[in-house]
Write a structure and sequence with these properties.
Blueprint: H1 2-6, H2 8-13, E1 21-23, E2 27-30, E3 37-40, H3 48-52, E4 60-64, E5 74-87, E6 101-102, H4 108-118, E7 133-138, E8 141-152, E9 155-163, H5 172-186, E10 190-196, H6 200-209, E11 211-224
Parallel strand pairs: 3-4, 9-10
Antiparallel strand pairs: 1-2, 2-3, 4-11, 5-10, 5-11, 6-7, 7-8, 8-9
Amino acid sequence: MKHLLDNITWHTLSGPHAKYAAGTDDARRYAQGYSPIVGFADVEHPDFAALARCCEPGEHFYCDGWSGVAPAGWNVDAESTMFKMLWDAAIPTTDEAPEAVMLGPEHASQALALATLTRPGPFGPKTIELGEYFGCFEGQRLVAMAGERMHAGTLREVSGVCTRPDFQGRGLARRLMAKLIRRQMQRNETPFLHVMRDNSSAHRLYERMGFRVYRETVVRVVSRC
């Protein structure tokens, strides 16, 4: 399955998440509202002309694995690198977050507000529809969450991991992740995730949990002029 991880966005958008995507046989994006991410069949020679047909000027998208010169009509607004990490440990033996609530449409606005506050990565009002999402609440307030996004073959991404600043240090995100990992492995899936290179504290946490670096890749934010 590792070959799928090299271009996981494309394999997701042209496979299990095709129903959430817009685009062509060469370039696709998540439909508006799901997650601002684009993928290309040939990541080394991306077809931005095909992508432009389903993107509005000023929309910003995350793009993984492409490092070429921006074509006419497109801007590269930001560039960094991130690690793709694969789970390399035994299945968690117990559900470490039995109190966690599975998030549904009624939680979408709170999930988006939490992601906007904490910035765990590309997130939209419909992101929690892309897989299972679980959250921890204080009363009626969502204070931590983790969920699933990309999926191809037996690979399933752990994503959207975040905690309100005033609730950090309690292990909420780690326990939510362990819950998801356990559920994925019970379905014979292999958990993976992305983490930005400069997010060293998260990187260390994921390694302690059992994730190992598969590869480092460029990630850009692009937009139509």
